[in-house]
Structures are given as structure tokens and as C-alpha cells.
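Q: What would this chain look like folded?
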Amino acid sequence: MLHLLYILAFTILALIAVSNLIRNLIMFSFERDRTFAAPRSPMQNRGNLPYISNRSVPHPELLDAAGNPIGEPLLVMRSIDVEDARAQLDALYEASPGCSSESKEEEA
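A: My prediction, written as C-alpha cells:
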């Protein structure tokens, strides 16, 4: 009898959790469609940036310290050889304060 009570309680909790999930998904979809008016200033109208819309408020990571939109890429990657990466990591390790001359002698 107690097992049936546990099954009923967890079924009710699961239904509540699923209904909250569905309600939150619906609320987020409505918020995503809503656009906010951006404050207009002469500094913001200085160029057409492809990822910043004039109709919406840009994300804070796309603004510099003064609040102006940035027009440069946020991530620049270059490819390097495995040997070059290993050499750079070894140089960092040897320059670290925890690296002692005894450990260098043991490796040789």
C-alpha cells in the first residue's frame, strides 16, 4: 500500500515538473519575440555592424567600456603545430615557480 502512495506522489511531482517546463518554454518563446527599443545616440549610429541591430538593445559583451558597440571580432584563432604548442607549454612550465632544477635533471 505504501508503494502505491509513493508512486502516486512521484507521479504528481513529475506532472507538476513537466507542466512548469512547458509553461517556461512558452514564456521564453514570447520573450524572445519581443524587441526592446535601443536608446539612440550619435555614437551608436556610426556604422552598420552586421551583428548589432538598430532596433534592439545589444548584448553587454558587444559593447566597450564606454557603451559603444564594438566592430572587431571577439575571438581570433590561429592554428599552430603540435610541436610548437608543446614547446610553448614546456616554456611556461619551466618558467613557473614550482619547477625546480632537480626535476629538470631527472628528465635528462
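The mean pLDDT is 78.
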